[in-house]
Predict the structure.
Amino acid sequence: MAAVKAAVVLPRPVTFVTGNAKKLEEVKAIIGDSIPFKSLKLDLPELQGEPEDISKEKARLAALQVNGPVLVEDTCLCFNALKGLPGLNNLLMAYEDKSAYALCAFSFSHGPGAEPLTFLGKTP
């Protein structure tokens, strides 16, 4: 049985908010050509909080600036010993467990006022 490739119909290309051309290449390599993308570097605030919340808020802010569909990405390094708390490497000296993981949060918004959809990826 052959796989069916569904096309997403959008009124215009999705703006991937990044100043990094390599990130855009990676997104296109993963998603393929089923969704048209363009990139734009925006000056969004450095937010604090949970990665999923940060990504969603960035998508909301970007959608307002672009006035259209956007995809944003936020990556953080999480140290298991700190149990989600932010901190510097010197905080880890007190812990035996110095393992960490990278958490990448992508959020998509259809445009201003739309609730962003968030996708999380975690590497051990």
Q: What stands out?
A: The chain has a mean pLDDT of 83. Residues 14-75+103-123 form a domain with the Maf protein fold (CATH 3.90.950.10). The first strand starts at residue 14 and ends at 17. The beta strands are 14-17, 37-40, 70-79, 100-109, 117-123.
